[in-house]
Each structure stands twice: as C-alpha cells, then as structure tokens.
Amino acid sequence: MASQPVDDFVASPATDASSVSVYVYDLDRRRQTEGYNESVPLIPASITKALTVASCQLKTGIDYRYETHVYIDGTLKNGILHGNLIIVGSGDPSLNSRQDADSDFISEVVSALKRKKITRIDGQILFDQSIFPLPAHPASWPAGDKSQSYGTGCFGFNFENNASGKSSVANPAAVCDTRLRKAFEAHGITVGDAEVAQTRRSLLMEHRSLTIDDLMRSCIRRSDNMYAEAFLRTYALRCKREATPDAGAAAEMEMWRRKGVDMKGVKIVDGSGLSRQNRMTAKFLGEVLRRMADDVDYVSYFPLAGQEGTLSSFLKDTRLDSFIALKTGSMNGIQCYAGYKLDYNFAPTHVVVIMVNNLTARGALRAAVEKMLLGLFPDEN
Fold this sequence. Notes:
- This protein has 11 helices and 13 strands.
- With 381 residues, the protein is an alpha+beta fold.
- The chain has 2 domains: 4-62 and 214-376, Beta-lactamase; 67-210, D-tyrosyl-trna(Tyr) Deacylase, Chain: A (3-Layer(bba) Sandwich), CATH 3.50.80.
- Strands 3, 4, 5, 6, 9 and 10 form a 6-stranded mixed β-sheet that branches.
- It is elongated.
- The mean pLDDT is 96.
C-alpha cells in the first residue's frame, strides 16, 4: 500500500529499503492510506517521547502539578529549629530549570524560613528522594551518554536540569544543598549540621510546578530526555507501580494493548528513546497517534514544520509550512518523524510516521522526506 511518493522515497539513495517504514492514516476517512514496512520493528529514538507523553497525560490529565514539600522537623523556639530541614522530592523534572525561570526554589525556602523567623537550624538539610528509586538511569543507556547533559539521570529530587553546561550532574540534591547554604548565609541563617533524630514534621512550604501540559510541551519541543524519564516514572506511580523505567514501560505497554493497539514487535525500555534497545513499528506508534488525535492539547505539543524547534527549517516556505507537526528522533544512523498533517484550523487530518534506521546521509534523507511529504499532500488543507 504505497503510492509513487513513498516508492520514490524508499528507492532514494539516502535510505536502506529494509530499514525504512512509513505509515500514513487519513483521520477523516478512517483508513490507512500509505504503508511500507509499517509492521517492521525499528529503533525509534526520540519519537518515543510521543508515546511517553501520551501515556502519562492519559493518567494525569493536563492540570497535574508536581509538588515539592519542605518540612521543619523538631521544635522551634526563639528562632532556633532544634531539628532538621527536610525536602521531599516529587520527581519534578522542572525544579529551578531554565524552562521555569519565573520561580526560584532557593528564594522560596529562604522566604519561608524568614516568615517563621528561623535564624538557625541545629540539625541538617535532608533530602527525601524515595519517590523515584535508584538507579537514576535506565540500565540500557550507553555509558558514554550518562556523563552528558542530554543523558543526565532522573532522581526523586531534580534540580536545575540535573546538568552543568554540557555535563550531567550526578547528585542534584547536593547542588541544591550548596545553593541553599549560600543563600542562608546571605540572610543570616546558620546550619549546625548536628545529627538530630527526626521527630514530628510540620509543613514549611510547598513548591508547585507548572501544569504538566506545559512541561510536556517543553519536553516534546526541546526533546528533553530527563523530562521524558520523569513522565514515565510518574506514569508508573499513577498506575500504582514502583516508579522505575521498567515498571512504567511495562504498564504503558499493557495499557495500549488493552486499547487494541497492535503490539507485535514492540519493546519499550525507557521514556525518552535514548536506549537503542527500544523497538517500535510505524503502525504501532501510528495507532497511538490516531487515538490521541482528538486531544487538542496533545496535538499542540508537536512542533510546526518551518516554524518551531528542530523543524524550523524543515519544509520552510513550502505549501506544507505550518501544516505538518512532527516530533523528530535522531541518533547515529537513525532519523524518525512522528506526528500529524494539519488543516487551516490546526486540526489533524492525517497521522504520519516515518522511521529510518541505518542511514548514512542525514541531509539527503531529510530532503527525501520533504519531497515525499510534498508528494503525499499536494494541497496544504
């Protein structure tokens, strides 16, 4: 079931025909219109995030917020806390991140202590990260990626993108601890660091993240691996499972199987697509996108061709500029696209999934994909 534009794409020197898959579904006519190797499992790279976000949003809704709680533990007398300051992580991937520049967790904690007139903490600053069990990385991630900012781990307490420049941070709680102590010193608050037994907690403050739809939009458009891993673990929690990548992946596969999606050949091991052990078929992800097509918020997460993110120059100044919305996935030897063809009202008319493994010339492939899409959709609406 392939038209001339698809045949030409598959025959392009930029592709290995055995490692290419194409799936196009007409949402109005409710039928698949294009298919090539659509049931062949391939490495999806970052289009995995489209699956993760869909799964998590179905469980959390769009108004869910991560809540990081800060407690004082012990007795408070004459401005001295005879106890500990305890920060309970919620798995929030955005805490003090570049994407939430309007809030500052450090300043919020300082202000909360000052409202209580606390000038000294006899005990320690403690972090409870138990909501997301260790290890912080999926087991199948390449070791070389883990030291890079794009391969940073996902913890129960995340801070400042868990990165410093282009390097990952192995202990984001320790970075926050340092930031807090510096701010405390500047405001005349001392920390004794004595070992004080925990007794009874009382809530000092609560930090709430942006709504999860804002975080998901940011994740898809920036292709943030750590955010995606947080969403997969959050999904596992909402399914009353342990918040690990394995548990989250197993739960989402069960859910889509129950929804009647063809799971043959599908293997999911993380939320971001950084693992090369993931396998998807274009048909599988296409069926997921079909079921999400009526969700206006979900569709809006995908960058517009010619306008946004990694698609800012893709199909630029063609008749499909702004009428194609896709998540891209790129790794060494891999280039994938997944999303929607849109009408003038930005409503989806078609599902589009293109997966290419074993590529050697990324620029030539991109040009071939553009040519195929222009051939498949001769009219922008």
